[in-house]
Structures are given as C-alpha cells and as structure tokens.
Amino acid sequence: MGATALFVFTLFSCIERKPERITKKESPVSADLASMIRENEAMQQDPKTSPEIRRATALRHHEAVYQLMAQSLIIEPLDLYRAALLLQDTVSPACSETWLLAHYMAADAGRRGQDSAKYLAACSYDRYLLSRGQPQKYATQVERDRFGRWYIPYFDTLTSDSERAAWEVPTLSALKAAAAAKNR
Q1: Percent of the chain with pLDDT strictly greater than 70
Q2: Closest CA to 142 of 86, 93, 180
Q3: N or C, where is the chain less crowded by C-beta within 10 Å?
Q4: Is residue 143 helix, strand or coil?
Q5: Which helix (H) or strand (E) segment is 79 a member of?
Q6: Cβ within 8 Å of residue 84, ≥6 positions away
Q7: What does pTM read for this prediction?
C-alpha cells in the first residue's frame, strides 16, 4: 500500500472510530450533501458547463466533504453514500486517493444498510485501481480504444460473479454485453 493510500485509510479509520455525536433522525449535514449532489447533477446535464467550472465545483465539494469529515459529521449511512458520490466525481485521475476514500465511505454505507452504496463502492475501487495502473476488480469501468469503440479495460479474472453480486455489480457477461451495446 502506497504512502498516500495509507494516509487515506488512516484518515478514514480515525474518523470512523470517533463517537457518534448525533442522536437526531436526520443528520445536520444531510441537506447540505443533497444540495451539492443536485448542483453536480445540474452541471452534468448542462452541456454549456465548461470543464474548468466542473473542476472548480468538484474541488469546492471535496473541500466541503473534508471539512464535514474533520468535524465527524458524516456518520449516517446515507451521508456516507452522498459524500462518496461527491468524492468519486473527480475530473483528474491524479486524485486517485479520492476514489479510494470514496470506496471506503461507500463500502461502509453499504455494510450499514445503504444498499445503493455498494455499486458505488465497487466503481470507486475500480477507478482507483485503474488510475494506479492495476487491473480493476469488478470490471465496472469502460473506456474507448483508439478507434472509438467501448471496451472493459483489463480486470481481475479471478473475481467471481457471486462476488460482484455482493456489491450489486452485474455479471461479467452482462458487463461485456453493456460495453458492446454502447458500440452499436
């Protein structure tokens, strides 16, 4: 494990062990995280949004999530999932540790009952692995080759479909079919 990955793991582990201070049903940060996600979705749907604006917004969202984490306010499964959604939206592959942190947060949310976070955990982990030049585990990521055809970049062939199913990931044959369908 690289130094940066160790730092991210240590950061998340420390945050995870802090006592839960929130006793209300709705966490105080839930609305803020939901608002950031809506802003992000609106930008993605607007073709006029420039890459510079997307990067600046992603950076602002990341900083907000880090501040909330530092205050131990992201503890509920839904909040962990929403924070992971914001962190995985990284425009630059140079931020691979952000994908790893998103994986840990989404995986924790999934283990704590937020089933929609499981697929995000798998995707974030695959993004992290590909950014480090390693084969993806679940085969969730697709890329275009030099001819413009979609394909699944190299992946771990030892990962079983039952392991994929545990993370809400379709079977390998379904993933391959979906990549092939994008080429039609």
Answers
A1: 83
A2: 180
A3: C
A4: strand
A5: helix 77-88
A6: 101, 102, 103, 105, 106, 109, 117, 120, 121, 124
A7: 0.81
